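Intended use. Records like the one below are meant for learning the mapping from a protein sequence to its folded structure. Do not use them to infer anything beyond what is encoded.
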Amino acid sequence: MESVLIFKAIFILVVFGITLLTATYSTLAERKVAGFLQDRLGPDRAGPYGLLQPLADAVKMFFKEEFIPSSANKWLFIAGPSLAMLTALMTSAVVPFGDSIIWDGQEFKLQGMEINIGILYVFGIVSLGVYGIMVGGWASNNKFSLLGAIRAASQNISYELAMGLSIIAIMMMTGSLDLNAVVKGQAGFHGMAWNVFYQPLACIIFIVCAFAECNRTPFDLPECETELVGGYHTEYSSMKLGLYLFSEYTNMFVSSAVISILFFGGYNFPGQDLLPFSHNVITIIGAAVFFGKILFFIFFFMWVRWTLPRFRYDQLMGLGWKSLLPLAIVNVMITGAVILLTGK
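Structure written out for the chain above:
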């Protein structure tokens, strides 16, 4: 028992570090992808190939002048970015990054917190993330910040409904709320029984809603510079602004992980049961494949940002309520009918 607790403590610290490192270098990848799509280089002066650019950005954020508006609510102004970052980091606690490692006769699962309602935990924490935006936008006592906060709240509420219904279809097929069970349910056909082949509509709905939940283009209405200066973080500077920006990339990392788990097999990969390797080696390969899937979806988030224009707000709300929500309800009904008729 003691060895399991030590492993869990070390594993949680490693996941925490990987999450922060991935989010940090996502800022560089964002600009590199933008440069590639726009036929330019992107940052290339801070170290070889610009690899030290995220560190330069962090130093800049830390040493910028701290500014709190005199009319702002000081404590809530501080609590906003802290809450946004806290909820972003808490979500990765239940993500299964691999199967399990067997050492000295004991099994160690590559998952920070093993609970049988993992998907509810993820959905609950993601729902709390909007409070960081709302609190910060309201506490700034700035009309642009308040408008951005209101937009964020209404956008998240609108798209969480369709997202939840798309997840219900997966839960109906799996029969469990455990993320590990969802991944193991996709291990058939030599690791290729991915839910995306059985629930393509749910996959599309979930990915679109993930863009909206992460406030990514074309759903970046809460912080659109052309209308609201900077949206809910207009009045923020120094590391408080850094926490807001950093939480967005952390959410993008976690969203990519959840998309990979629910629809793309998680740590399952083609031919995994045909390889002549030990269980531990297969687990390590599966974890590497899982991170490869995460990096692909992070790239996809960035690709879409520099490809599609921003929606108008009426288009954004119309898509959520008039298109995605009815489609998600129909998908749940079809899934239920198929399960009832086939008994699977």
